[in-house]
Design brief:
four-stranded parallel sheet; six-stranded parallel sheet; Rossmann fold; single chain; alpha/beta; 3 domains
Length: 342
Amino acid sequence: MSKYQSTVDIARALKLSPSTVSRALNDHYSISEKTKLRVLAYAHEVGFRKNLNASRLIQRKTFTLGILMPEVVSHTFSTLAQGINDVLEPVGYDMLIMNASEQYKKEVHMLNYLASIRVDGIIFSPTQQTKDYAHLQSLLKNKIPFVNIDRGLTNVDCHQILLDDEEGAFQAVQHLVNLGCRSIAHIAGPPEALNSRNRIIGYRKALEAGGLAFDASLLTYSDFIIGNSMEAVRSLFERDNIPEGIFAVNDEIVLGCLQMAAQKGIQVPEQLALVGFDDEVYSRFFRPSISTVRSPIREMGQKAAQLCLNMIDDYESFPPKTQLLTPQLIIRSSSRKEWRKE
């Protein structure tokens, strides 16, 4: 262990004031590069380690953001975490990532825990079970910087950075209409989830724009996980008239459709065109590769992190608002027009 235990020791050795040494170690703009390099070189030489806990107590910050996700294994949520880290790491912030495993009770417990350990801010996305937002109100009441992402909240006055799900669904279904599909089904997500409801709106608007009547029997509900959704998928493939096109709430559900199509001897995309959502990393490598709607997930994470940092510095200057990011349709083999029979 170094005998130089504090900035005071370094200041004495270099004949500088303790405040100058502290500012140099924190890369403060008021200290010249020459002095910074001198201080840093000497600190390294004597094995000095900055006392982060003391520094954080002085600044009344933990330099940690709590990240609460409904699940962490999907490409979507891992990419969100990457985007958040892009912003936090360069400014010395840490992430405390917690996984609610799509369970509302775990979400409430973990959110209360993050507030109790006084993280500087929270980035959050609700579980598919979440219907009651009472646990969020204490965060807002206590002015804890809080940003909701990906899955929208209703009647909660907070910052939200979301995808324009309605537009993404419209693009997907319009593509199927343009292929010549006359019967288009939608395997939707949980009806309680705002992004699922918005994708249904986009689906219906695209049908209307394409001159197709809405058929309630072609709308079926699942959740976001294929293991819990095969009954919804199977119901479409057991119809007397199987749809010509299916728009699924995410790419994972498309995998279930591909499995059922193979079991039924249905050719994709010649007899059935499929479009998913999220552009999961595996989607381009399947055969056929999966047409999908790509969202700027990493950018969403970056924007949420920067907004949270801004609120930490000046909470009152950032009144709550919702930002919508623009999706992009990615056409691959599962619906490629030139593959389909004339």
